[in-house]
Amino acid sequence: MNTNELKYLIEKYNNQTTTPEEKKLVEEWYDRIDGANLEQNSLEDAKVKQQILSRVTAGIQNIPGPKAKRIRLNYGLFFKAAAILIALIGGTYIYFSQTNSSRIQTATVKTNKRTIVPGGNNAVLLLADGSQIILNNTSDGQVASQSGVQVIKTKSGELLYRFTGNATAKAAAINTVSTPRGGQYHLILVDGTEVWLNASSSVKFPTAFVGNERRVEVTGEVYFEVAKNKTKPFIVHTDQSDIRVLGTHFNVNTYADEEYERTTLLEGSVEIKRGAKKALLKPGQQASLNAKSDGIKINEIEDLSEVIAWKNGYFQFEKSDLPSVMRQVSRWYDAEVIYNGKIPAKQLSGKAQRNVSIEKLVEMLAWNGIRCKVEYNQITINPK
């Protein structure tokens, strides 16, 4: 069967228009190759690629609860054949089917007593007196009271700062909320500003904003929705810059293992200051700073949802190289990533929930030609 015949039959299979004989032929072909590496660009039909991508996305999103079992049976090979066809016609697409493929899992995953699991709400609150509160082990309600400000853990798991009755606090205590690898957290500062922390991140802030500015310090990746106050600007300090806003939504990525510190603006306006240099961001723009130079580079961002996907509970990539994808995976699953040999030159695109199991994650990577082995807290990427 040549590539044109294969493309034609897979299209018919995905559309469920094959004859019984054609259906059998496709399934026999699939069983023979069973995830084998296929050369990219052997079929170069971008229109078919986009059609298959659309059907994969629609198939995943439209699986209803009551009939899920029946649809899983009907669509299992559809997802895999579609993924293989996409690989054939160039590019890579991240997908998660609703089926269990034991063949892939047993071929690519070796697990033991220690299981790698997705991250979750997990953070530590450091109070001004040096005491620590592990938030995921703390009951709902008031967890501390400092300088006229209550610290409350809400039923939904947020950390809320609020005044105890006075209009202002006489003095402010300095607190820090930090997340470990495999952790995230959401807190609301006393002025109403909302802060979301990604894994391995921190925010240092006063319990009350006294004076003529609101200043916090961050590490890792943090998303802000700043409460508006025209008379008191909100300043975010990082290792490389000061970000000055009045009221806006923006994301700051300052991980030490990333090449650039990036500030992305979703709403309002942001001023980036680095030494004597300044730059003003508009919504949809991103400022990139490199420790090796003193410049500020401004880029337009086509899809802002990719930048804040982590905050909304997703992995989302668009033509991202494998190391950048695996850095996110490593932080969220608290797993070490090891490359056994040359790093595969792959570009990944797609979207998946961050609560997916490590088995499903490895299955996804396997169907995109990336072979993994999972042992203890390590994910090893093997050559083809």
Helices and strands in order:
Elements: H1 3-14, H2 20-33, H3 46-61, H4 68-88, E1 93-94, H5 102-108, E2 120-121, E3 124-126, E4 132-134, E5 141-146, E6 149-153, E7 159-163, E8 174-178, E9 183-188, E10 194-197, E11 202-206, E12 214-225, E13 234-237, E14 242-245, E15 249-254, E16 261-267, E17 270-274, E18 277-281, E19 285-289, E20 297-300, H6 304-307, E21 314-321, H7 322-333, E22 336-339, E23 347-353, H8 358-367, E24 371-375, E25 378-382
Parallel strand pairs: 1-23, 2-9, 7-9, 12-13, 22-25
Antiparallel strand pairs: 3-4, 3-8, 5-6, 6-7, 8-11, 9-10, 10-12, 11-12, 12-15, 13-14, 14-17, 15-16, 16-19, 17-18, 19-20, 21-23, 24-25
Protein name: Iron dicitrate transport regulator FecR
Domain Protein FecR C-terminal: 314-381
Keywords: Membrane, Transmembrane, Transmembrane helix
Please characterize this protein's 3D structure.
This is Iron dicitrate transport regulator FecR. Keywords: Membrane, Transmembrane, Transmembrane helix. Pfam families: FecR (PF04773), FecR_C (PF16344). The protein is elongated, with a radius of gyration of 24 Å. The protein has 384 residues and is of the alpha+beta class. It has a 19-stranded mixed sheet that branches. It folds into three domains: 97 residues, no CATH class; 187 residues, Sandwich (Jelly Rolls); 70 residues, 3-Layer(bab) Sandwich (Phage tail protein beta-alpha-beta fold), CATH 3.55.50.30. Helix 1 runs antiparallel to helix 4 and helix 3 runs antiparallel to helix 4. A hairpin with a 5-residue loop joins strand 6 and strand 7. About 17% of the residues have low confidence. The protein contains eight helices and 25 strands.
